[in-house]
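Why run this: before we spend reagent on co-expression, it is cheaper to look at a predicted model of the complex and decide which construct boundaries make sense. The entries below are exactly what would go into the expression plan.
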Amino acid sequence: MKPIVSFDDPVERIDALLAEGKHRAAWAEMIHLVEREPTGAVFQAVADAATKLSPKDADLVPVRVGLLANFTIDLVAPLLLAQGLPSRLLVDPYVAGFDTWIQEILDPSSSLREAAPDVVVLALQLEALSPALAFRFLELTPEQVNAEVESALARIEEAVVGLRAWSRAKVLIHAFPTPITPALGILDARLSTGQTATVRRLNEQLASLAERIGDVFLVDLSRLVASIGAVRWQDARLWGMAKIPFSQAAARALAAEYVRYLRAFKGLSRKVLVLDLDDTLWGGILGEDGIEGIRLGDEYPGRAFVELQQAILGLHRRGVVLAINSKNNEEDVLEVLMKHPSMVLRPEHFAATRINWQDKSANMSELADELGLSLDSFVFIDDSEVECERMRQSFPEVMTVRLEAEPAARAGAVLALGVFDTLSYSDEDRKRGALYKQEAPRTKLRAGAQSLDDFYRSLDMVLDVYAVGRAQVQRAADLTQRTNQFNLTTRRYTVDELTAALRASGCEAYAFRLTDRFGDNGIIGVGMIEVDGSRGAISNLLMSCRVLRRTVEDAVLAFLMTRARELGACEIEGRFRPTRKNGQTKDFYRDRGFSPIAPDGDTERFVRSLAEPIESPKWIVVRRHEAADAV
Amino acid sequence: MQSRVCSIIARILKVPAASLDATSSPDTLKNWDSLHFLQIVLALEEEFGVQFSVDEIGALQSVGIIVEILRERGVSA
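The model came back. Tokens follow.
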């Protein structure tokens, strides 16, 4: 065993960087350390050091999380902080006292309220919530079982409704794990009145409660227990000594699961999977073994690579954008992609490729530019430790995953990454990879057109404008969560929040869909206006980076101004709230004839009269559609 | 071995490793409360590949005793 203390202790190095005010570098050191040495001592040391990070200087997204439980959940807090860092989350955890969840929510002067959490975790164990269901199940009549279920649900509902009275925090509720040793043993599984069925029923009703209240999400504990194994999940000693119902390994899995939700809430889920080729998508080196010699087919190890490709294709269908970053001869690779009979992934699945002999980090920057997506939404997979380490050094914000040595274990490992989560799934997601793919011929066309106007005209663009109603609200909310770069105010909405905003008077939201000669881009932008008498304001404006630099943003702006004028506004205010990501939009209003006025806190404001003519690009046909169904 | 034990305790309690010695205990370290103590125990188990019984855990009340019990469990260096 190697000693932890070396002459150059990484924790001391982190402290030194923090003392020098180098927060970004300290953050990068922290995530390297956690990756290299994921031990309890390191998690704790990193969590302590992370409390000194400035979110602004380290470019992190702060999130306050309240942990409420009817058992000892304290050990999860430092893990949550340490495990959030690689995703650029800076978690500020608040741990409520043991079994004080109801008081914390209902007491107007509770510390939870003071902590003003963005997210509240309600982690309840059935053993404490309903000891009768957990320990004395066979003593209960079916009526008593029902009464216990109802009572447990009523207490949870009271808590969540009570929380909603003072907070818009998102809520994570633990669904109850099905019992490992059910009351009736092997018989339990087939009885509709068994303990297992009762716990499932409880969970179904929790799910409908979550849906009814809104912004409430369930943590599927059964899946977590299954994934690490019930034997490893428990540590009877910790339960006996400290009322901690799980092992250290389980606490880490739980924190990692919370982080998945936090990423999705904060728009930090990864979107792009960048793949190496040799010994990653297939076994062997194409340049040496040739198309006939690479391992890919029905027999091990070729089968393992086919399975990995199937797993990756599944992610693509979920909306993950795929790209290649490989040291190879491009024509050799294209031959494999098109002709190898066992390839699952084909050229149409890749939105962008860099197959050349240049440094992979340089390729990575180019891929980010081409796709219009920032590097912190990228995952990079490679079998070479050297390439992986280089990528980590160059871009700590890229999630770099070194594949395990055993090919057969790789498909499962890629599926278990758990970093591509979204809060919804739509047809848009299913098509997203293909949408990015269409960008390539357009970029080529731009290079060939004589003048920019000719280029725009040649695109045959049609902008469909939809008043956001029930049919579009999901997609519109999604875009507010996901868009970072062309996003003027970066106000994130869940479906429930957007619905509430639209029901308020004077507020309208529009979703924009762009079609051009290469195909349908789907819904690519959202704009929101508020009109109060003669004053209008564009409170939210965001667009997918895929469609920028073709004047679509001008058509969108022209539409929003025209609409504000129809509603009686004489002048319109544009708002810009700077973030680390949206710098490209800082002059958006100024460049379009708006004049700056006094800012409102961190929001810059610009104003323009609506008496002047409003011009929309002539080469974009705008078609307006009324909402079929108001929210 | 004592230096490895101290290093773990230092990381969890956020104190300089050099400030710890065989006599360091809950009485000399104010951060050494019950939850931090559990974290120390779990981290020691992870580092040295052992598992303590609840009785043993109850006895781990100073750096010196921890080192002694680890030795009894056959951990060297």
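Residues 1-50 of chain A form one domain. The CA atoms of residues 174 and 219 of chain A lie 5 Å apart. Bring this page to Monday's planning discussion.
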